[in-house]
Here is the input.
Amino acid sequence: MPKTIALIAAFLMTALVWGGDARAQLPGDDSHIQLKHIMAPSLVKPGSPATRIRPLTPIMTVPKAEDVPFVCQRAPRAAEAILNYFYKNPAPVTKKGELDVKTLDDNHRLVAAHVNRAFGKPIVSEVYFIEGGKSFGSGMMGRLPFAQSQGCGRVMEEYEKRLKEALGEGEGGQ
Here is the structure.
């Protein structure tokens, strides 16, 4: 047990020192954009027509970096499209009543097609889900070197800053 704790502490210290701040990077190609969690219908048990509501956190893959601001501006449309998908096809569960993540992951392109239909053009390539209302772009998780998921808040701030610079409003001259 002490070796495990020492190993975890060493890993976290290495991540903090070596990794820097992963959120300081601008979104690139194959960006993962995390939406706020949604309350989606899921089956009570396999094959049952009854449903219950579960929190799910969607993470969308956007292949082109220039499409990320478009996706973030229309995040409510994406959330609505995902909810429409789940109202037609409630999230599957295992025999134990847990969310069947494997089946959800197998349908990631189908969910992306619903989102793209709401956007009016094919922008999102995949949509993955994590059970619960999780935030992976902040706190300790956001500082780890492998953290690649971003929320839309920082993306939109950077987009608005670049837009103002392009229009000549800069820092002082409005």
